[in-house]
Structure formats: structure tokens, C-alpha cells
């Protein structure tokens, strides 16, 4: 940042109103509106948003499915994946400076429950989702608790920085069980599934089989280092034959949210196999618990990131040469949000990024 930016005050630099991509009614769609710029309370910072990622959660909110109708109370500014710069810091935000490039942990935890007090904040039962239960980052500015802020290194690539949240999901999932020498199946090659592939390879997986119906995403999965890609979970048996591992997969990662994918994945695990469930099915999935018991399978739910262990692991993996930004396929100006959400909903996209301002406007790398 420039020295000049460090002296900026709210009054000089932050306009009274801002653009926000608002869920303004209980129904499908989002509307780009002019709203009041929020003011940070004690312990909060105001961030100027540079780029935001469109996540599956945002697509649920956008199309207003049963989960969204049950969970979201309009008016709400959705969005939780972002990179921005701190433009104002209230009292009690020590250590954060004006001009710093930041993202934030979108799972805002209570700080007082036994898990929070035991440094297991990812298990907080009172977690509030940024852009779900409080206003998020699809706006020119956003207010965030300082305790949730992740400070990027100076000069960080913006498409990499905006991915810390979903890449963190992938990294958390991939570190759940040891992968060295293991035959791994991933069902679903959305952005998180895609970003999991190189991490699994880096962690020593012997083979990574990816199930994904979209040919575009299968191609992306191959580029990410998948050993075998197949269109349906019914093809898992063939993939095992090709790998000469007929007894099943050692580790499975369900990242599609499709009930059939979870059922098929469980059916193709080896005895003693371990399954990470990250995808969110939109209805209960019947499970043969006798089969889980007799084949001694382990099923582990994974949500979000370990706070902030996973964020440090993300940094280390970037240093090791893993490039999650390879899954970014589209950039749209925030004003073109209708098209951006259309593309993000299609199966032709990897990660879709909304650009809220240019680096030069933000003084970034000035
Ligand atoms: Zn997300
Ligand atoms: Zn808590």
C-alpha cells in the first residue's frame, strides 16, 4: 500500500452509499441496489471488496430453494468468498492496518462455547455464516469482525486470495485421513472437488478417481491431475478394475451433494475405507448402516475450515506450488451479475469471480 492510503479516514475515502447485490425479497434472483455503507462497530473492520467468488451456497440463495427459504431472512447481502482491503478499523481491532489485503473466515463463531475455548472453533455450534445469517461481501464494502480476518501476504495474487475459503474446504477435506499411497475417489468436480485433486496428489495419493457428469469439468479434473475421470458413479467399478484395485477405494470424498453419489461411493469403498462427506444433499439419504458396520467404514463430515490451522496449510500449499486459481474459469464485473450467476449455475464453469473494482482503483500494489 501507499503511505497515503495508511492515513485515509472513513470520511475521506468511503462513500455514504455503496452497491450491494441484495436478496431483497423471499424469492429467486438478486438485485444490484444502492444501500448505506455499513459502519464498523468495536472489534470490526470495514473492508473494500475487490473480488468475490460465487459459491454453491450463493447459488442456493440466488435460486431460493427449500434450504434458502428455510434459512435466509431478506433483506440480506449474500457472499462470503472475497479478497479486499481494510479501509477502516474500529477500536479493538489491534494488529490490522488500513490498506492490508485480507479475506475472512466465513464461519463466524461465538468465541465462548467449549469448542471455541478449546481452540476447535470449526466445531462451534453457534456458528453464523457470513452472507447467510448476517450481511456478506457481495457489495463494494463489508463489515467484518477482526477475529475472522485473514491477512494476506503483500502482493498476493487476487484470484488466489479470493479462493482461500473454498480452497480451505478442499485442504481441510484432503487432510482428514492419511492419503499417502491410497486409492482415492472424489465424487463431484465443482470448484472444491477440482481443488482437492492436486492437494490429494501432493499428499501422496497413489491414484485419484473423479466422478463428474459434466465433460467440461472432467477436462478440468484431468488438468488438475486426476488419474481417471468418469461421468457417473456407476463407473467406479470400472475405474477400480483399471487400477487393479478390485477390493475398493481406500478413501472417498463426496463433494457433489448428490444422494446417489454418496450411496455409490459407500458401496465402492474397501473394507476399513474412510469417507469424507462435504457435499450437502438436499434431502435425507438412506444409508445401509449394517453395511457400514460389517465393512468397518469410517464416515467423517467435513464443513468449512479448521480456524485458522487450515488457512496456514493453504499458505504452505501455495508455497509448495499448488495453484488453486487454475479452477477460475470466468470473471464478471459485479454489474454483470445476472450472466455471472447463469454461468456459475451451468456445468461448464469452474469458479466464477465477480470483480467489484480494479486493482488500480483500490491502490492495490500501488
Ligand atoms: Zn463458499
Ligand atoms: Zn463457539
UniProtKB/TrEMBL annotation:
One of its GO terms (molecular function) is L-threonine 3-dehydrogenase activity. The keyword Metal-binding applies. It is an enzyme of class 1 (oxidoreductase). Residues 27-354 form the Enoyl reductase (ER) domain. Its cofactor is Zn(2+). SMART domains: PKS_ER. Keywords: Metal-binding, Oxidoreductase, Zinc. Its EC number is 1.1.1.103. PANTHER family: L-THREONINE 3-DEHYDROGENASE (PTHR43401). This is L-threonine 3-dehydrogenase. The gene is tdh.
Amino acid at each position: 500500500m501507499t503511505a497515503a492510503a495508511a492515513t485515509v479516514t472513513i470520511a475521506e475515502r468511503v462513500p455514504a452509499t455503496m452497491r450491494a447485490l441484495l436478496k431483497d425479497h423471499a424469492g429467486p434472483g438478486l438485485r444490484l441496489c444502492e444501500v448505506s455503507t455499513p459502519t464498523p462497530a468495536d472489534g470490526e473492520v470495514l473492508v473494500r471488496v475487490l473480488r468475490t467468488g460465487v459459491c454453491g451456497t450463493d447459488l442456493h440463495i440466488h435460486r431460493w430453494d427449500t434450504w434458502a427459504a428455510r434459512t435466509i431472512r431478506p433483506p440480506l447481502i449474500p457472499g462470503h468468498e472475497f479478497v479486499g482491503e481494510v479501509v477502516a478499523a474500529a477500536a479493538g481491532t489491534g494488529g490490522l492496518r488500513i490498506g492490508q489485503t485480507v479475506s475472512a473466515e466465513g464461519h463466524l463463531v461465538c468465541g465462548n462455547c467449549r469448542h471455541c475455548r478449546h481452540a476447535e472453533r470449526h466445531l462451534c455450534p453457534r456458528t453464523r455464516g457470513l452472507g447467510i445469517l448476517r450481511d456478506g461481501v457481495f457489495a463494494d464494502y463489508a463489515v467484518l469482525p477482526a477475529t475472522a480476518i485473514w491477512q494476506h501476504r503483500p502482493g498476493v495474487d487476487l484470484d488466489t486470495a479470493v479462493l482461500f475459503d473454498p480452497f480451505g474446504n478442499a485442504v481441510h477435506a484432503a487432510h482428514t485421513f492419511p492419503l499417502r499411497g491410497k486409492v482415492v475417489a472424489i465424487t463431484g468436480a465443482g470448484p472444491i472437488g477440482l481443488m482437492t485433486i492436486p492437494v490429494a496428489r501432493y499428499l501422496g495419493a497413489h491414484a485419484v478417481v473423479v466422478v463428474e457428469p459434466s465433460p467440461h469439468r472432467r477436462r478440468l479434473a484431468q488438468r488438475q491431475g486426476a488419474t481417471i475421470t468418469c461421468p457417473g458413479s456407476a463407473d467406479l467399478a470400472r475405474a477400480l478394475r483399471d487400477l487393479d484395485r478390485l477390493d475398493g477405494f481406500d478413501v472417498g470424498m463426496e463433494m457433489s451433494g448428490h444422494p446417489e453419489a454418496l450411496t455409490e461411493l459407500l458401496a465402492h469403498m474397501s473394507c476399513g475405507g474412510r469417507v469424507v462427506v462435504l457435499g450437502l444433499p438436499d434431502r435425507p439419504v438412506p444409508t445401509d448402516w449394517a453395511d457400514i458396520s460389517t465393512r468397518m467404514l469410517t464416515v467423517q463430515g467435513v464443513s468449512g475450515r479448521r480456524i485458522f490451522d487450515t488457512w496456514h496449510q493453504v499458505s504452505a500449499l501455495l508455497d509448495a506450488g499448488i495453484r488453486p486459481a487454475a479452477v477460475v474459469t470466468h470473471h464478471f464485473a459485479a454489474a454483470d451479475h445476472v450472466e455471472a450467476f447463469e454461468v456459475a449455475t451451468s456445468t461448464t464453469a469452474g469458479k466464477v469471480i465477480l470483480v467489484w473494482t480494479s486493482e488500480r482503483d483500490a491502490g492495490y500494489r500501488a
